[in-house]
Write a structure and sequence with these properties.
The structure holds two protein chains of two kinds. By secondary structure, chain A is mainly α. Chain A has eleven helices and two strands; from the N terminus they run ααααββααααααα. In chain A, helix 9 packs across helix 10. By secondary structure, chain B is α/β, with parallel strands linked by helices. In chain B, helix 3 runs parallel beside helix 6. Classes of the chains: A mainly alpha, B alpha/beta. The interface between A and B is medium-sized, with 17 and 26 residues.
């Protein structure tokens, strides 16, 4: 029973990792930029979630506002911060991204205060029984939400014209353009979708911890980097599996290794172990 | 149909083609031949909007397209089967064709797809296969098929025969002649001069980014030494 409970907890955590890492993978696939500031949108999504829920009492409304707002913010980050640097080596954009992330964290501290915000009346806190294991409704919502959102994304990428165009752009942007794809629009769409998903994760994490604080994004930020490396950099399916695997490994690890290895260290021990055997990541092509 | 006037193109400080002028009439096959590095590929990539135009002008269908972005040139009717084919390797044959027709309304797509698959029945057998796993010949057919999906008025094909078995080259050249009968204007870039001459109406020999001979392919066919002499200069 403990094993099943740990598995479920791991999948909840993995779902959240997946929602964050997917955006990072989309950006990396398209621009070869490690978009560290992505985690800032995750945090800001959490703040909007708490503020809107506290003001209106509706978590659904909070999601409906946070997701498109962060989507647009993501496009703004691309246009102002990355687009002017596209002709430079990738580390230039990486440094810009790290700078932007630090700036965002400090702005959150100035605007929302250093101690964080909580839900006045946190929704979805009742327990739900699943085959004898009790989960919070919020945890269940995290899993279901991730399945629905990422399922929707997979449909978009695999079954629609715009999704096909987006994948073609990842493979060969010049050729995609030669057949009529508007590359600028594809980049906007990817930033919008990835950032909106990160915002949804922010709202959920704020709900699970009943806290959103300025540095909420730092751990997910580097963990998501580990996940997209494990997933084979730019590979959506690989990212998804790596995120869930990491959630589950951490969940078991805290019980069996927790006495000497911190939860966050497990992610990187796993990363190092995998890269020693498969330098291209779990699902990357050699 | 297509008119280049004193076209100069290249990459940054490097100029690959120094002032090329030519005109391709509607419905003809025009062959651009010459040695490696003569500027053939740079020329067609500039027509497609992929290489920087450094001087001169390109007009197509009576309209100056010199400054048109690449993605609007395909809408104007110019499609490309590029050097090295550059298929979307992770995608299926079907998805590559979809991308080829991306600039056209969805309704036109089914019709074009039927035409392409009738031209290259091999692609129909491989429709769900990953394009990266196709043989070289099948990849070339797909590259041409993908360009045809754009329903072009001008089709540009770079190195049809490169690395292919003679039998497959025959299939591709048969297709090219069929396409001419459909009224499509074709610009061929070839190192295999004889293959190109056999189907072309006009030929231009490029050497170090300049045209050294231009004329009717029939003349060149009658006097094989004519072109060889110029190619000899280039080689």
């Amino acid at each position: 029973m403990l094993a099943f409970e740990l598995l479920l907890q791991g999948l909840v955590q993995g779902s959240i990792y997946a929602l964050i890492a997917v955006g990072l993978t989309l950006v990396y696939g398209l621009l070869r930029i490690l978009h560290v500031a992505h985690a800032g949108l995750f945090t800001l999504g959490g703040y909007i979630g708490v503020l809107v829920t506290n003001a209106t009492g509706s978590l659904a409304l909070a999601l409906l506002i946070a997701m498109p707002a962060m989507g647009l913010f993501g496009i703004a980050i691309y246009r102002t911060c990355y687009q002017p640097l596209l002709g430079r080596p990738p580390y230039v954009a990486l440094i810009a991204s790290i700078g932007l992330f630090i700036m965002m964290e400090e702005l959150f501290r100035l605007i929302f205060g250093p101690y964080g915000l909580s839900y006045v009346a946190p929704p979805l806190q009742d327990p739900v029984g699943i085959l004898g294991v009790n989960l919070k409704q919020a945890e269940l919502a995290a899993m279901v939400g991730a399945v629905v959102l990422i399922g929707g994304l997979a449909f978009l990428a695999g079954r629609t014209r715009i999704g096909t165009a987006s994948r073609a752009t990842v493979t060969d942007p010049k050729m995609a353009e030669a057949f009529g794809v508007n590359i600028a629009r594809i980049r906007d769409i990817n930033f919008f979708v990835g950032s909106a998903l990160a915002a949804s994760a922010g709202v959920i994490v704020a709900l699970l911890n009943n806290l959103v604080e300025p540095t909420m994004g730092s751990v997910p930020s580097y963990k998501a980097l580990a996940i997209i490396v494990l997933g084979g950099l730019g590979d959506l399916r690989g990212t998804l599996i790596a995120a869930l695997a990491l959630g589950v490994i951490e969940s078991f690890g805290t019980i069996y290794l927790g006495s000497f290895l911190d939860r966050d260290a497990i992610a990187f021990a796993f990363l190092i172990a995998v890269l020693m055997i498969r330098p291209q990541g779990l699902f990357g092509k050699a | 149909m297509l008119k280049l006037e004193n076209l100069k193109c290249g990459y940054g400080a490097f100029t690959a083609v120094h002032g090329l002028s030519l005109e391709i009439p509607q419905g003809e096959i025009f062959a651009l031949v010459g040695a490696n590095g003569a500027g053939k590929t740079s020329t067609i990539m500039t027509i497609a909007g992929q290489v920087e135009l450094q001087g001169g002008s390109i007009s197509f269908d009576g309209r100056d397209i010199s400054n048109l972005p690449a993605r609007e040139r395909v809408t104007a009717g110019i499609a490309l089967a590029p050097e090295g084919r550059r298929l979307f390797a992770d995608m299926s044959v079907e998805e590559n064709l979809t991308m080829g027709g991306y600039s056209r309304p969805r309704a036109a797509e089914a019709e074009m797809r039927e035409m392409v698959l009738a031209t290259f029945p091999r692609l129909k057998e491989r429709i769900h296969q990953r394009s990266g796993s196709l043989s070289g010949g099948e990849q070339q057919m797909l590259a041409i098929g993908r360009a045809l999906m754009a329903d072009p008025k001008l089709l540009m094909i770079d190195e049809v025969s490169l690395g292919l078995m003679p039998k497959i080259v025959d299939v591709c050249y048969d297709a090219i002649q069929q396409l001419k009968k459909r009224g499509i204007t074709i610009l061929l870039v070839e190192q295999n001069t004889q293959r190109a001459l056999a189907v072309a109406d006009q030929v231009c020999v490029l050497e170090s980014g300049r045209s050294v001979w231009m004329g009717s392919a029939a003349d060149a066919r009658e006097d094989p030494k004519l072109i060889e002499a110029y190619l000899g200069l280039a080689g």
